[in-house]
User: Fold these one by one.
Assistant:
Number 1:
Amino acid sequence: MSACMQCPRRCGADRSRENGLCGAPATPHVARAALHMWEEPCLSGTRGAGTIFFCGCNLDCLFCQNYEISHGTIGSRLDAGELADLMLCLQGMGAHNIDLVTPTPHLHVLLPALEKAKASGLTIPVVYNTNGYELVESLRSLEGLVDIYLPDLKYISAVAAQKYSGAADYFQYAAPAILEMQRQCGVLQLDEEGIARRGLIVRHLVLPGSVDEARGALDFIAANLPKDTRISLMSQYVPCHRAVTPPLNRRLTRREYQRAVDYCLSLGLTQVFVQEMEAADAAYTPLFDGKIG
Ligand code: SF4
């Protein structure tokens, strides 16, 4: 592909010759693909989400838990046909859904892969599991192919977004992107067993020393999305990668997390997944061993 412009970085890389700012070449590396039990309960269910971890990321988070793959390349390079086969394989293993993790740098391959997989019998929901730094026009190309959007809403302020993830304009893109996701899929719908079938889940990882960012994200949701929007308010922060200075070099306190949860409820946002503080364990980070299946 020439002159990639499919995310807000719009770096214009000719990825047939060089990696983009996201670190990704034209053909994606899959670092791991397997049944995964550590997503929200309505996604992992009893058999697991059919998770495909891609290498490459258009953010540069100091605290990235997946840093081995976000800016490295591990695993197998798969073209569109091979990705479609992998999705069908995960469906055959009993996955509740296909969970595409950090998919946006690979949109140009995922679009034909999803079309092929669906034409070949993929019936389980497709989950677009993204950091939220998205272009609305790229998301529009996914309409009808994605069933569940699972975006982060990481920051409201440009200062925090630049300092922690190297993207001062994060909220400027994430806000309209989440509205577009809501337009396409609506509020979350569950089946009779509590498994997600369609809709939107907005994630926010509460960072140490950043309860105000959490409040801002929740204010945005309360003001712009339906009150029954599903929110995943996460407490699982662990200092890792380049998170070596305060406040990122410590875990979230119980009090900080409770303040975020209380604020969420005070806004009338009651459809919220909360986490036990014990979830903040590096063991939740998958082993990226290139394993497929
Ligand atoms: S997806 Fe990667 S290569 Fe494409 S514009 Fe974004 S950073 Fe650049």
Number 2:
Amino acid sequence: MKTIKLKNTLKGEIEILNPLEKGKVLIYSCGPTVYDFAHIGNFRSFLMSDLLFRVLDYAGYSVTKVQNITDVGHLTQDDLVDSQGEDKILKKAKLEKKDPYEIARFFEEAFIEDEKVLRIIPPTFRPRATEFVKEQIEMTKILIEKGFAYSINGSVYFRTTKFKDYGKLSKNSLKDLLSGARVEVNDEKESPLDFALWKKAEEAHLMQWNFETCEKIPLEEIHKQHKEAKDPTLFGFPGWHIECSAMSLKLLGESFDIHTGGEDNIFPHHECEIAQNECTHGGKIKCWLHAKHLLVDGKKMSKSKGNFYTIRDLLEKGYSGETIRYALLSAHYRTALNFTFESLEMAKNSIARVVEVYRILKNHKEESTAKKSFDVEVSTEMYQKFLFEQDLGVSQALSVVFDLINTAMKARENNKLTNKEAMKVVKFLEDDFNCIFDVLPKETIISANLKKEIESKIIERKEAREAKDWAKADRVRDDLLAKGIELIDEAGKTNWKIKS
Ligand SMILES: [Zn+2]
């Protein structure tokens, strides 16, 4: 286990990661709100979380990562102290005249597909907010009991003035917030800074639960239940902030090591999470990591400016997932990343250069009599130091990679590259570079043994089919599929590819 240093938004400085349990790191990353395809700005933050996961794993830690799916409660005006507006998923459902749950599942699936394209490692747990409503209600009830929240007209608000540390993450004081923050007019709240933990649902609201029983009200029963209920203010839906608090508590425990998100989550979302957690059970989140906003052509991305891109848009323009991954990952997560098509081209060229060198060095056979002219171990050490100790220093780590491959190619040109050194660089690219950046074509790093196995399985399957033993033929195909190899029958021949 190596020492890891990260910049903690809460402290405002770089500090050594000191996990609650030695060798284990618990991470919670705010996941997507599934009402539309996620855009490249969203994915910058999800890629930061992937980078963090991979760096910790590479450094020898055992990592548990929770990344939720927000499928209820995220309102359109989410930058207000207390979010207002329409539920993003319901708005889309209305627009498309579909069941809101259908919308949520559709975009959840699309998100997971995009993640795969970008080679993001799936989280250990991917909880849906709608499946943890009971936990959210329980937490809300504890906050009411302890006096940190109050219920009025069927809605429940957090009493911000009672939590003296409110504002510690975003460096806001309650006083500053009162004078400067964007607040809405709402007479039922004690203070404009109070935020909703639970909102009363009108009959027309399509996603609602019973606050007493925690049960979801099926769409077709909403009208009937509202009509028959003694107290219709019992029906409602959870706020966006409470879901992350409830899911992290259930899956990681009261305290955990790292929480990540985009910088727009710092306030109010993460500030509210801290308030809810600390007032319910006193648990602490040790380190907060936030990815900076992404600009496109120097401007904030927006649909109206025509500089808004989803992963699908870029794939359609012919860029690969690896290229997009590299372009979004290669700048430090706390720097403003200006995304341009030029930067995508540069990413494409950088990957092509690494792949080219990788292939040349892998086939390097000429044994040079020269002594070794460079030191792969020194480069590896520097590469690790940047990633581990410079707050996930990707740009410096990448410059080490390019220095190393350029030096190796120079030595080769001058006939000074030994086979041993060439193999060490190949191994570095496979084991060190690729385990973090993951952009090498998958088929190039498939082991020779697996290749042999695939070829013999193809023959075995062909024989089984000739003998009309379909069950056996299918079994062979499924065995390979389990190893990530897909067989393709074309024009009487069987080829294979890595399952995407
Ligand atoms: Zn969250």
